[in-house]
Amino acid sequence: MNRSGTRPQGGFTLLELMVAVAILAVLGVTAYAGLDAAYRTQARLKEEDARWRALALLWLRLEDDLRAWVPRPVRARGGQPQAAWLAEPQVHAAYGAQLEMTRLTDAAAGEGPPVRVGYRLREGRVEGLRWPVLDAGPRAEPQVAVLLTGVRVFDLAYLDAQGVWHTRWPPAPEAGRPRAVRVSLSLEDGRVFHRLFAF
Q1: What is the per-residue pLDDT across 61-72, written as a single tens digit (0 to 9) for each?
Q2: Which of 34, 41, 127, 180 could form a disulfide with 159 if both were Cys (CB 3.0 to 4.6 A apart)?
């Protein structure tokens, strides 16, 4: 202090600096925690949004394929004839599918060459398959696209003309297309979805 009893201007004491640094540190930690929580929330929302989009696209694609079905049988890799609509509950080969069908390329216009498409659950992923040709040669492999991940169950059932549900199709050679398809889908997080497609 000077002779007038006042403190000289122009500086901070060590105690004041330490208090200011401590306050800034607390504010910094609080701000970081808030930003981290907001970032995590945003990441979860983006992941959830991506999951719902993928699920919606799966339903749209499946419905489009089911409705574009045409009664054109094909020949399998070994030359054996296969029904235009073929379903097995389990996939037994790398090129196999739970559901295979022949569909028009452009169903809206009712034209275009038919193509062979399929669906299956493999290692927690619902995959869409598309064969390069209808009558597959011995080395023909389908193109595979991952449609949905984190899937535990992907079950399909098919309704015949007598109102009976089947896990395989066709139940008889002349069966054609089922009257309806029921899809049961269970995700690894426990959510379960059911969808019915009627024709």
Answers
A1: 999 999 999 999
A2: 180
